[in-house]
Write a structure and sequence with these properties.
- It is a single chain.
- By secondary structure, the chain is α+β, with helices and mostly antiparallel strands.
- It has a domain of 152 residues: Rod shape-determining protein MreC, domain 1 (Thrombin, subunit H).
- Helices cover 37% and strands 29% of the residues.
- The protein is built from two helices and twelve strands.
- The chain has a six-stranded antiparallel beta barrel with strand order 1-2-5-4-3-12. The chain has a six-stranded antiparallel beta barrel with strand order 6-7-8-11-10-9.
- The longest helix has 75 residues.
- 22% of the residues are buried.
């Protein structure tokens, strides 16, 4: 019985409070204006606090959202910047290669030789097997024994091994390299061979022939596919062979084999 009594009183209280709130809120004919003013005065601090708190929460979410957006934009800019740097580097390398190609094409005697331009794709000029690998092979008409030159017809070696799209060039510094050569100033003849990747010597020169420091050494054109008159280098010093039968000359190449980028094969 007491529980039913309390429930009835609670229902009546809620009903009366609801009616009062609706009357105050809708305020028919402005009758409850004073009461409404008191209600708003009481609720104002809470309303202001909730409004400010809502604004702070909204600003916080906006801040974190802007950080995420800035991070995405920054990553995008970094990717674009890296792509531009890579493109610039590639263009600079292409321009450098084109300049080298134009320079050498002007210098090489194209009217004398049938030349095939080739890029160096591998090299080992300082070890026992002094060689480079170029990007031309049998598909380009390259065959074993063809001479390889740079610049103004400077001989650097001959084709050793050939595959479909590449070839190995045996450099003059290789101990297996043998090229007939002559002294441009005195016409003394000998054999150019390598010193295990360390340099070039002109060997088998007769004692009666003259060799002088500073003389220019060229290919003699004898006994092979190498034409006459290709520049090899200059004599640095002259010595007598160990058997005392011939002269030897240390020859300084006109090019640095470690720096080769573009070469030309003289086809038969």
């Amino acid at each position: 019985m007491p529980k039913q009594y309390l429930s009835a009183k609670l229902i009546k209280f809620i009903a009366v409070a609801t009616i009062c709130f609706l009357l105050i809120f809708f305020n028919p004919s402005g009758f409850f204006n004073p009461v409404r003013m008191i209600f708003f005065e009481i609720a104002y601090p809470f309303q202001k606090t909730l409004y400010i708190l809502g604004q702070n929460i909204e600003e916080t979410f906006s801040f974190f959202a802007s950080i995420g957006s800035m991070r995405i934009e920054n990553e995008k800019l970094i990717r674009e910047n890296n792509a531009l740097i890579s493109e610039v580097a590639s263009l600079q390398e292409m321009r450098k290669e084109n300049e080298i190609l134009r320079e050498q094409l002007k210098l090489i005697p194209r009217d004398k030789f049938n030349l095939v331009s080739s890029s160096v794709i591998a090299q080992n000029p300082q070890n026992t097997g002094s060689w480079i690998v170029i990007d031309k092979g049998t598909s380009d008409g390259i065959s074993v024994g063809m001479p390889v030159i740079v610049s103004e017809g400077i001989l650097i070696g001959t084709i050793g091994d050939v595959s479909l799209n590449s070839s190995r060039v045996i450099l003059l510094t290789d101990s297996a390299s043998l090229v007939n050569a002559s002294d441009l100033e005195t016409s003394a003849r000998g054999i150019i061979t390598g010193m295990y990747g360390l340099g070039i010597i002109m060997d088998m020169v007769a004692q009666v022939d003259a060799l002088n420091e500073g003389d220019t050494i060229i290919s003699s054109g004898l006994g092979g596919d190498i034409p006459k008159g290709l520049l090899i280098g200059k004599i640095q010093e002259v010595n007598i062979s160990s058997d005392k039968l011939f002269q030897q000359a240390v020859v300084i190449p006109r090019v640095r084999y470690q720096k080769l980028d573009l070469v030309f094969v003289i086809k038969k």
